[in-house]
UniProtKB/TrEMBL annotation:
Main location: cytoplasm
Keyword Transferase: yes
Pathway: Amino-acid degradation; L-phenylalanine degradation; acetoacetate and fumarate from L-phenylalanine: step 5/6
Record-given protein name: Maleylacetoacetate isomerase
EC number of this enzyme: 2.5.1.18, 5.2.1.2
Domain GST C-terminal: 87-206
Catalytic reactions on record: 4-maleylacetoacetate = 4-fumarylacetoacetate; RX + glutathione = an S-substituted glutathione + a halide anion + H(+)
Highest taxon in the source lineage: Eukaryota
Pfam family of the protein (one): GST_N_2
Domain GST N-terminal: from-to ranges: 1-82
Record keywords: Cytoplasm, Isomerase, Phenylalanine catabolism, Transferase, Tyrosine catabolism
Length: 210
């Protein structure tokens, strides 16, 4: 497998965690979203992913984009350890939380949107994350055990940790979100989350390395 990734991309980080949890080794090709006006806009990368976004994963003779689609494919082809619970209700909760973050928070504060916001980009990002986290905190109070849904790591957790990192980067006050904070802390102790962390990638700038 070849993963096209950017160290700081939260969507890429989700996929790196999934690959690490499932023990799938891969080659990483960095795509710098800022350098050269954004390497994702090159003709070469557009041919790979017409949406001109990371991540993209070449695997089993196909190229996949969209992090949740990639994670679902990995789940179906490498079912252990499981990232979607067997219980239909818990599985629905996992997908709900993953979608809440991947559709309801992250796209509103990603690089493309922030460029449009100009000087208000930090305020915009904070507002998007805060409103999303207010809802997420309430949801997690009903679903969480040790992690987002019960005591097993799931696709929801793969979305949560990168989004909390975004929140911290934009200096969001995490005080009102004790459940999110507790789960995030527990997840960051797991090896798969450590090795996939933005501070430990081949393309991480020296000053941001762990």
């Amino acid at each position: 497998p070849i993963l096209y990734s950017y160290f700081r991309s939260s969507c890429s980080w989700r996929v790196r965690i999934a690959l690490a949890l499932k023990g799938i080794s891969y080659d990483l090709v960095p795509v710098n979203l800022i350098k050269d006006g954004g390497q994702q806009f090159s003709a070469e990368f557009k041919a790979l992913n017409p949406m001109q976004q990371v991540p993209a994963l070449k695997i089993d003779g196909i190229t996949l984009s969209q992090s949740l689609a990639i994670i679902n494919y990995l789940e179906e082809t490498h079912p252990h350890p499981r990232l979607l619970p067997q219980d239909p209700k818990k599985r629905a909760q996992v997908r709900m939380i993953a979608d809440h973050i991947a559709s309801g928070i992250q796209p509103l504060q990603n690089l493309g949107v922030l460029k449009q916001m100009g000087e208000k980009k930090t305020e915009w990002a904070q507002n998007c994350i805060t409103s999303g986290f207010q809802a997420l905190e309430q949801i997690l109070q009903n679903t969480a055990g040790r992690y987002c849904v019960g005591d097993e790591v799931s696709m929801a957790d793969l979305c949560l940790v990168p989004q909390v990192a975004n929140a911290e980067r934009f200096k969001v006050d995490m005080g009102p979100y004790p459940t999110i904070t507790r789960i995030n802390k527990a997840l960051l102790e797991l090896e798969a989350f450590k090795i996939s962390h933005p501070s430990r990638q081949p393309d991480t700038p020296a000053e941001l390395r762990a």
